[in-house]
Amino acid sequence: MTKREKAELHPTDEELIAKFQSGDLYAFDVLVRRYKNQLMNFVCRFVGNREEAEDIVQDTFVRLYRNKHSYRRIARFSTWIYTIAGNLAKTELRKRKGRRLLAISQLGCEDKEFEIEDSAFDPEQEVDGTMKGAIIQREIDNLPPKFREVIILRDIQELSYEEISEIIKAPLGTVKSRVNRARLRLQKRLEEIAAN
Amino acid sequence: MATGNCDDFVAPIMAYIDGELSGTDRQRLMEHLRQCAHCAAQVQKLRLLRVQLRNLPRLSTSPGFEAGLRARLRREEQARSRRTLPLATFASLRVAGYAFAVVVLCLAALGALLMLRHGHQLAVTSKGEVEAARLGGADDGDTAAVVVNYVLDSVPIDAELLGRGVPLGSQTLPGSAVPMDSLAKGGAMPSAVRPRLVSF
Q1: Beta-carbon neighbour count of residue B159 at 10 Å?
Q2: ipTM score for this prediction
Q3: In chain B, which residues have their Cβ closer than 8 Å to the Cβ of A137?
Q4: Cβ-based contacts of B54 with chain A (< 8 Å)
Q5: Tens digit of pLDDT for each residue in A109-166?
Q6: For chains A and B, what is the number of CB pairs under 8 angstroms?
Q7: Which candidate, A30, A27, A62, A36, places its Cα nearest to that of B73?
């Protein structure tokens, strides 16, 4: 397969957004499919609620659809879309703080039954894993938003420090320092929970 | 005894966990970890935390996400087209309104101009009629009016002169000592003041 054929089969995000800016709606669909789960994972871990997260991810794509021309090629598409999603998530957190609501019936990020792919599935191990996941998520939720955002982007989404710096519009040193502090806090809390 | 203060190794430990520590910094940390059980344990805990975080289940959108997004975009497009239609109508109406106002103003200005001109002509014509009667011989009223118009245009407007009953016929034409009465009596008009037919 030639390089050109490969590029046509697997266009980059930047090529796709350029096509979408030229009116190719199929390119938009490809971007949605490419990013919907990544963003869902990030936003749901950030806001800690599945329904809200899905709304935010949808809002993110609506913004992309409406403001496609505000994207400039100087930035990576991935950081641009993460910035939109992150800002919407922060707005939602601020609104929630205003509402001071914590509905018990709301589905947390770990409350969904996950698809089982492994045929040698061990229910006990899965329950244990889900519980651990729920505990970790709860402790992530308890971190201040500025620490929560960076630890999710770095250790869950596995983005580089440079990408995170672009997304949250903060200097590299600030990002590293926040990640370090977030890890230490989280690790300390999980240690306390394990000790009890 | 451990080499250096443990607090100084927090950032190198994080960089080490991220796989971004190399060279002498890495050697210094390794040396410290060999001697400091607390920091060595910290490294293990942080590594475990990273693994746990990385292994958290990947959350995905619900199966109806894309359909919901498309439906929402469609709704927004429809709402936008509904919003833009009256706006477009309003905009076109506004333009039409401006155009109408301009036409009305132009017509008003034209009307005012014509009225001014017509008013002047009327005034002159009434004097012209008088003068035509005095001239006697003029059959064509318009021609007489033009004569008087010409004469009046040549005479500096003087309210006192025009308004206080100074007989027009006794006035003299500018640049001429010939009284107008003499014109009425069939006297020759100086060529310099001979009236011309002017079309309006």
Answers
A1: 7
A2: 0.83
A3: 56
A4: 155-156, 158
A5: 766 544 434 445 555 655 566 778 889 999 999 999 999 999 999 999 999 999 999 9
A6: 80
A7: A62
